[in-house]
Specification:
Layout: H1 2-14, E1 26-27, E2 32-34, E3 40-49, H2 62-74, E4 89-98, E5 107-114, E6 125-132, E7 138-145, E8 147-154, E9 159-176, E10 189-194, H3 199-213, E11 218-222, E12 225-229, H4 230-233, H5 238-245, E13 249-250, E14 257-261, E15 266-269, E16 274-275, E17 278-291, E18 294-296, E19 307-309, E20 312-327, E21 331-332, H6 333-342, H7 347-359, E22 363-364, E23 366-369
Parallel strand pairs: 14-23
Antiparallel strand pairs: 1-13, 2-10, 3-4, 3-6, 4-5, 5-9, 6-7, 7-9, 8-9, 10-12, 11-12, 14-15, 16-21, 16-22, 17-20, 18-19
Helix pairs in contact: 1-6
């Protein structure tokens, strides 16, 4: 145990990591979103036809029959009082994203998902389906052949499914019929929204823009917003102003963070994670229980019955762990992980150690467990 403790301390002392690695500059366009330049979600309710007997059972999905009647009546077919029992149709939800500056006539991709008891959408065709936004207006119309994301097959006593055959996509399956009412060219100022709000990063973006287009053009409003006065940039239009600033390089500042995934044993950490002085001791106890029942039978021609006598072997095994080791203040988490790896500590035990160090208040970082 003492040898393992000494080895742990040596690993921490012998492995040196640079205290401040050179930060990588990132373009402003990869750090922010321009206020107002965004996509909009669309949704619609439609019908997929042409399925090979894998559609909805209309008794279990009566809404499929209703939409069939509506479509046929719009096409001039009188189906009042008729009974539908086809198995080649399926009711679906159709979703899409209307991109920023999407123009009338442009095509976008759509996703089709069954909402009834259809078994597969493979080979089906989506009938003309209007797509609505949150305001209730129709912005696109979708139609086309569905490319299903899986396949299924079944027999009398077995069934096999690979992927998700009840969902699929239609590339360029919707055509934009209405544009979003947004006049970008009429803006007098731009607001840049940081994807990860941080005061230092926002200040660096402000400084980079002011150096490029002129002092006072950009102003940091808060940790997540930088305002750009278009009149002071000298650009002829808001689009030209965005072109002038979006490729400027800025070194983003990141919060010290440790992310662990207990299911896979993955540990991801930032370079700024630091530890205060703390002592660590870790050991494993394994409880082993084995059942070995014995069957006891009576002698031949003797009165009695066969019984099962339980036999249990229980044992507690103490596996080698880490003895009491002191981690000096200011040590980086990279050095600690390197030391634990040198000792052969498993990822799951490493996660437990990091949790305990965080609970002791010695791990100075945001600790996220997935």
């Amino acid at each position: 145990m003492m040898i393992r403790t000494i080895l742990f301390a040596l690993c921490l002392g012998l492995i040196h990591w640079p205290s401040h690695a050179a930060a990588q500059a990132v373009r402003i366009k990869d750090l922010v979103e321009v206020d107002g330049v965004r996509a909009n979600d669309l949704v619609g309710y439609g019908l997929v036809v042409g399925l090979n007997g894998t559609g909805d059972g209309l008794r279990n999905a009566p809404f499929t029959e209703e939409i069939m009647q509506n479509i046929l009546e719009r096409l001039g077919v009188n189906v009042t009082g008729e009974q539908f029992r086809p198995r080649n149709v399926a009711a679906v939800f159709v979703t899409a994203r209307l991109p920023a500056f999407g123009r009338t006539g442009s095509q976008i991709d759509v996703t089709v998902s069954a909402i009834g008891d259809a078994q597969s959408l493979l080979g089906g065709t989506l009938i003309m389906t209007p797509l609505n936004a949150a305001d209730g207006q129709i912005y696109a119309v979708a139609q086309g052949t569905v490319i299903a994301g899986g396949v299924g097959a079944e027999g009398d006593a077995a069934r096999v499914v690979q992927g998700v055959p009840t969902a699929g996509v239609i590339p360029s399956g919707a055509r934009i019929e209405r544009e979003v009412d947004f006049e970008f060219s009429e803006l007098s100022s731009l607001r840049l929204a940081l994807r990860e709000p941080d005061f230092t990063t926002a200040a660096r973006i402000e400084a980079a823009i002011n150096r490029r287009v002129g002092s006072g053009a950009a102003e940091m409003l808060d940790a997540g917003t930088v305002s750009v006065n278009l009149r002071r940039t000298g650009a002829s239009s808001p689009a030209r102003a965005v072109v002038a600033i979006e490729n400027l390089a800025v070194e983003p500042e990141r919060r010290a963070r440790v992310v662990v995934d207990q299911r896979s044993g993955t540990i991801v950490m930032g370079e700024d994670v630091r530890l205060s002085r703390v002592a660590v001791s870790q050991g494993n106890l394994t409880l082993r229980i084995e059942e070995a029942p014995i069957t006891v039978q009576p002698n031949p021609f003797a009165a009695g019955e066969t019984v099962i006598v339980p036999r249990t072997n229980a044992d507690i095994v103490k596996e080698p762990g880490i003895g009491l080791a002191e981690i000096p203040g200011g040590t980086s988490l990279s050095e600690v992980i390197a030391g634990l790896n040198a000792l052969g500590v498993s990822p799951r035990d490493m996660i437990d150690i990091l949790k305990s160090i965080k609970a002791a208040g010695a791990l100075h970082a945001e600790f996220l467990v997935m």
